[in-house]
Design goal:
Layout: H1 7-13, H2 22-41, H3 43-51, H4 59-63, E1 65-69, E2 72-76, H5 79-94, E3 97-100, E4 103-106, H6 117-144, H7 161-171
Antiparallel strand pairs: 1-2, 3-4
Helix pairs in contact: 2-3, 2-5, 5-6, 6-7
């Protein structure tokens, strides 16, 4: 599967430590793309983006840019930053768990204690809130550039699914 962002690039957006275990990180990147990014972009445009990762026209969408929409200058951070947020929301929930032939284990050492699950959920929720904010700007960018991205259909997503989930969490 083509990835919007690589394990090495994730380090540019998120603090995941110095040692990058690609075998652990790559599946979470794929999961973030398939479960979150595909939802907000819509299936057709999601696959269009994956097929055009090296196309110069798509680089501003991927890496971020400024743009004008309704006579106002905006900045959008790009799909790589958005995917990094989705990745981090999933990564923090899995970081302390190792799947072994003998079952799931939690990492522990003499010098540390694993973070409590509720703390990790809070971090995950904050990452999804950040993703929802980033998505709103990216969506404006796509709406302002429909002629560049003809496969983008704003009707695919009227609001961020992650934003809707966050709203439900806040109301409880």
């Amino acid at each position: 599967m083509n990835k919007i962002i690589t394990a090495t690039e994730i380090k540019n957006y998120k603090d995941i430590g110095n040692k990058v275990d690609e075998n652990k990180i790559n599946p979470i990147i794929e999961q973030a793309q398939l479960t979150e990014l595909k939802d907000v972009l819509g299936s057709e445009f999601y696959f269009d983006v994956l097929n055009n990762l090296n196309n110069p026209i798509y680089q501003d969408l991927l890496s971020g840019s400024t743009f004008t929409y309704n006579d106002i200058v905006y900045h959008q951070d790009g799909l790589k930053a958005l995917t990094a947020d989705y990745f981090m929301a999933k990564y923090v929930m899995q970081i302390n768990t190792n799947i072994t032939p003998f079952g799931a284990t939690i990492k522990q050492s003499n010098d540390s204690v694993p973070a409590e699950r509720n703390s990790l959920k809070d971090i995950s929720t904050m990452q999804m809130q950040l993703a929802g904010s980033r998505w709103e700007q990216i969506k404006k960018y796509l709406d302002a550039n429909k002629e560049i991205f003809p496969k983008w259909k704003s009707l695919n997503c009227t609001s961020s699914p992650s934003g809707e989930r966050i709203m439900r969490i806040r109301k409880i």
